[in-house]
Amino acid sequence: MVPVKVKTLIVVSAPAPSILVLQPVEEPIQPGKYRIVPIWVGANEAAQLGVALEKARFARPMTHDLFLDALTNLDARVDHVVISGVKGAMFFARLTLKQHERLVDLDARPSDAIALAIRQQAPLYIDEEVLERASFPYVFKNESDATEEIEEFRSFLAELAPEDFEE
User: Fold this and answer.
1) Which segments constitute the BFN domain (predicted)?
2) Quick one: 40 exposed, middle or buried, by C-beta within 10 A (0-12, 13-18, 19+)?
3) Model pTM?
4) H helices present in 4-101, as ranges
5) I need a surface site. Which of 4, 52, 58, 99 has the fewest CB within 10 A?
């Protein structure tokens, strides 16, 4: 199992799917180059993930809050989540609850399991085989890289002349 974190949630208006982006907590493949795992989620799932990520609170409990309240009253909590499988674009997750010394393993949609784990600050993991099959390399640029790139482009534009386009 490889620890992962939520890198970002890209929310798109329906009917297009939103994207939950997970990033392994690991050394970069190359400087600035990491692997990411995009998981497509529906609008409702994205909303629930957004609420969890923003730590939003409402006057009445949302479904995930109700579930966690029930767990608390049963002396249980979310122990961890594992993204355990992938078939095509469909991901599978295991939600592990802990009640005293007993672990309870449940099949869950990744969006629900991750929304619960975020609310309880429980660790997220991905199966190594799933990571290999579903991840993509991605380069994260830091702000200084972007600033340098913009300056290089401005310099290029300043030196550009109409005759550069003649054949």
Assistant:
1) 1-138
2) middle
3) 0.80
4) 43-54, 63-73
5) 58
